[in-house]
Amino acid sequence: MVRKILKLGDETLRKTSKPMQKFDLRLWLLLRDMTETMRKAEGVGLAAPQVGILRRVVVIDVGDEHGLIELINPEIIAAEGEQAGSEGCLSVPGRRGYVVRPSKVTVRAQDRKGKPFEITGEDLLARALCHEIDHLDGIIYVDKMDHEIFDDDEEAQ
Ligand code: CO
After folding, report:
1. What is the H or E stretch that residue 131 is in?
2. Reduced to 3 states, what is the DSSP secondary structure of residue 61?
3. How far is Cα 128 from Cα 104, in angstroms, rounded to an integer?
4. Between vectors from CA 154 to CA 124 and to CA 40, what angle results, nearest 5°?
5. Under 8 Å between Cβ of 109 and 50
6. Exposed, middle or buried, 71 (CB in 10 Å: 0-12/13-18/19+)?
7. CA dist 68 to 38, 75, 119, 152, Å?
8. Domains and CATH numbers, the chain
9. Rounded-to-integer distance, Cα 26 and Cα 19, Å
10. Distance (Å, whole) CA 1 – CA 155
11. How far away, in angstroms, is 8 Cα from ligand 1 center?
């Protein structure tokens, strides 16, 4: 089921999400809905608070060899380098911003059954991991952006 994506200005997006403790059907249905919602909106990532659920659950698919990544209770445990680039968010439609992020991050999380694992991402995946995990703490990329990107700027690049 495709869920409604909350937009910038909705207070729910600013709240801190709680850890997921039960790895049961309710979680699996949430993951399924989040993936459907992300794909329909043609996004590369979605965090549970964006669909109004204040739990530490994220889905990402940047179209690389990792395919769909499901992250429960993710934490960044290592970060290195720096990348500066354009970033958008399904909760901030029609806008892009210039955001500096680490170029490589390692995340520890649990899978849909509660089993711990680690994933390392570079470039776009590193950016997506940072962006989505920020959502779990009520942080939106506009808080961190250096400046807004307008169409004219992109043509100039
Ligand atoms: Co976002």
Report:
1. helix 123-135
2. coil
3. 11
4. 50
5. no
6. buried
7. 11, 18, 12, 33
8. 11-149 (3.90.45.10)
9. 14
10. 37
11. 10
Q: Which DSSP state fits 24?
A: S
* Cα 3 → chain centroid: 16
Distance 107 CA to ligand 1 centre (A): 17
Q: What is the mean pLDDT of residues 125-152?
A: 94
From 11-15, 33-37, 70-74, 148-152, the region with the lowest mean pLDDT: 148-152
Say how many Å lie between the CA of residue 41 and the centre of ligand 1.
12
Just list the catalytic residues: 132
Mean pLDDT within 39-61: 98
Residue written as token pair 């959502």:
135
Q: CA-to-CA distance for 52 and 4, rounded, in angstroms?
A: 8
This prediction has a pTM of: 0.95
What is the mean predicted confidence (pLDDT) over 85-105?
Answer: 97
Q: Residue 152 has which token pair?
A: 């004219």
